[in-house]
Amino acid sequence: MTASTMSVDLGLPTDYYGVNVFDDKAMRQHLPKAVYKSLRQTMDKGEGLDPSIADIVATALKDWAMSKGASHYTHVFYPLTGNSAEKHDSFLSPDENGGAIAEFSGTMLVQGEADGSSLPSGGLRSTFEARGYTAWDVTSPAYIIENAGGIVLCIPTLFLSWTGLALDKKTPLIRSNQAISKQALRVLKLFGAETNLPITSNGGLEQEYFLIDRDYIMKRPDLMVAGRTLFGARPPKGQEFEDQYYGVIPNRVLAFMVEVERELYKLGVPVKTRHNEAAPSQYEIAPMYEAANLATDHNQLIMTVLRRVARSHNLVCLLHEKPFHALNGSGKHLNYSIGNKDVGNLFDPGDTPHENAQFLVFLCSVIRAVHKYSGFLRASVASASNDFRLGAHEAPPSIMSLFLGDQLSDVLEQFRIGDVKGSRKKRIMNVGVDTLPQFPADPGDRNRTSPFAFVGNRFEFRAVGSSQSPADSIVALNAMLAESLDFAATFLERELQSKEVKNLGEAVQHFIAHVVEEHSAVLFSGDGYSEIWHKEAERRNLPIYPHTPDALPVYTHAEVIDLCTRYAIMSREELRARQDIYLEQYTKTIRTEALLAVNMARTLIYPASIRYQTELAKNSKALKECGIEAKSKLLVEITECITNLDTSIRALEKTIKTDPVDTREREIAAKNAGNSFNIQLAEAKHCKNLILPTMLELRKCVDTLELMVADDLWPLPSYQNMLFVK
Ligand code: ADP
Ligand code: MG
User: Residue 113 CA to chain centroid, in angstroms?
Assistant: First the structure.
């Protein structure tokens, strides 16, 4: 079955929603009652799996999958490349009589072996021990993928080295959930809240993307290989009319969206909204929020399905953060909250003074967390492609600040004033007695220039890039908030023991005042794009890491190592591995793009320009022969541009060849096996400081030529073609 033949009548979405997921309904139907109960317990409470039920679950899963036509199964995992990885195995095994039987044991379900030697490990595995293993993530349900090539049972897993080190994005996320649960429960206990369930983080991920006709992409090596245009003059009409956002969705695009949604419904992904985005040919898809771990897995599925379905509509879905220069880039807003079924959403202010007091503790813990660890949060979104997006065109700047809205800022200010001795003139709020003013759930004064904003009952982190896994940011948020909640719980516990503190309300009052006094520097409600803010941020001592090579060193800063090891989220080695891998990815990405730019300029742009120049020259000559002596200004200009083009190509080639590290340094590092950080950083900085600016120079030459050379000779589809033909 291909994606397009699946448009056969499936009935109502309510009928086929989740048909391809081994969800609660399927579990209840296919598992013995006691096994179901035990598995449910494991899923809900995040407890260890009872090994005695693994075989039964595996057999039920296999039967269910085979009844839907599956022939193979795969452990799906999320290596540090940010993609999904899978290795398919058949259910069939030869039997003793020359036939075959279908087999799927508990061991096969729970653990798999994956040769990860070609996946990045950042030195966590030595080459002689290249294997890693995958371990079933019981909390994310198994599902079936229908492809033109076959039907496969997919089992979400963790990916670890044999020594237990996390080689993936999921493992730290699960660990960080445990950390935040433990600390949040300590705070909740003080408020007398009762629950037997863990507290989990939730994620609602708004995914932006571009959709371009496949025929154009085939003619653009840059879009094919790098996912972004390395060249392309600005079209006369860009997005300045602001007529695209929420505009009517073109038919062809709508057909694509409907099919994407149908596929995702079958996979139990709760897709909710679709709309046009600000740039031409840019769109957004957003599911309802879910537990962060599941939301992250589902986001990977969304990206996969978007790409796959686009193909069958002769479209290409671009997930790159900045496919088109001078237009909006694509992000992935992460809506973040914590809570559970019993206690509700802990970022919801609530209606009673008691609920408000609890809310204020969680809110202030977030403020403190973002202030203390903003560098870590910034590093979690660092990548070559996201660097092009942050800081312009509806994307937040790379300085991490928190936007609360006027009302909430006002409330906090009252606490600050209240706590400063001798200035009790203004009436202050009395925690535990007063009720907070009503905050608009969806405040109109949304500040789009803020990377991290409180939006009524959750935070919206807007710096995640469209192609990135949100996992790293969720891990950073969970880790920093766990530490802050730990601090809050300890603070309040200590206060409550003090004779001078009358009640919990007063203890909370002190906590809020403390946070506002110490950590207000991270609050900002002005224009995040402005020059003034950059100066102000500097004055406030907020870390400013404009680009990836500035941000990634944070992974091994003492306070980040301390934070992640203290809450058993990542070890020093695991952090270092991420730093190495991400730095390497950055350098590789830019070097590949630079080589591609040289190649395209030399073999496509240069020949086209020369052809046009020759035509102009011929024309001049022909005119002269007729006795018309006209000096072609265009010929003079284009000749000059071609010379500049040639110079720029050579300059870029030179910077690509230049090694920023001298031989001696390399020798020392080679002896010092395992510590190549300085070399990697030097290479990344070379990319940032020399290769990228030189590429931009080359781009200017090419874009100037694009506006001169005859259209029929220009080898690349223009921005106008790609963005406005639908
Ligand atoms: P907007 O474009 O106005 O930001 P959307 O409705 O497109 O809003 O997206 C909001 C996202 O936030 C959705 O994925 C939604 O499910 C999610 N969301 C809503 N409430 C919460 C919450 N408490 N925690 C996490 N995410 C939430
Ligand atoms: Mg949003």
Answer: 27
Distance 207 CA to ligand 1 centre (A): 11
∠172-178-180 over CA atoms, to 5°? 100
Entry pTM = 0.94
Nearest CA to ligand 1 atom 2: 206
Query: Ligand 1: which atom is nearest the Cα of residue 288?
Result: 16
Q: Which atom from ligand 1 is nearest to the alpha carbon of 273?
A: 7
Alpha-carbon separation of residue 563 from 454, 569, 635 (angstroms):
24, 8, 63
Distance, in Å, from the CA atom of 705 to the CA atom of 709, rounded to the nearest integer, reads 6
By the 8 A CB rule, do 608 and 715 touch? yes
| Of 289, 333, 337, 460, best ligand 1 pocket probe by most atoms within 8 Å of the beta carbon | 289
- Centre of ligand 2 from the C-alpha of residue 633, in Å: 51
Residue whose structure tokens are 């909250």: 337
Q: What is the mean pLDDT of each run of 10 residues along the chain (726 residues)?
A: 49 90 95 95 83 93 95 93 86 88 91 77 63 89 88 95 91 97 98 95 97 95 97 79 62 92 96 86 96 98 96 96 93 97 95 91 98 97 95 75 87 74 54 75 64 93 96 98 98 95 92 94 88 91 94 97 98 94 96 98 98 95 88 92 98 96 82 78 96 98 97 96 81
pLDDT tens across 91-114, in order? Answer: 988 888 888 898 899 999 998 887
Task: Identify which of 201, 205, 206, 333 to mutate to test ligand 1's pocket (most ligand atoms within 8 A of the CB).
Answer: 206
For ligand 2, the distance from its centroid to the CA atom of residue 275, given in whole angstroms, is: 12
Closest CA to 547 of 688, 349, 416, 646: 688
Ligand 1 binding pocket (C-beta < 6 A) is 202, 204, 206, 273, 286-289, 335-337, 345, 457-458
Cα–ligand 2 centroid distance for 206 (angstroms): 6
For residue 320 the two structure tokens come to 């790159």
Both tokens assigned to 550 = 């500035």
Q: Which residues contact 172 (CB under 8 A, 6 or more apart)?
A: 166, 471, 475, 569, 570, 574
609-647 pLDDT per residue, tens: 999 999 999 999 999 999 887 778 999 999 999 999 999
**b/e sequence 170-181, b meaning 16+ C-beta within 10 Å:** bbbbbbbbbbbb
Q: pLDDT of 294-307, one tens digit each?
A: 999 999 999 999 99
Say which amino acid occupies 258.
V
Which residue in this structure is represented by tokens 């708004």? 206
Residue 333 and residue 538: Cα distance in Å, rounded?
Answer: 26
Q: Which domains does the chain have, with CATH numbers?
A: 3-167 (3.10.20.70), 178-570 (3.30.590.10), 585-724 (1.20.120.1560)
Ligand 2: distance of its center to the CA of 25 in Å? 32
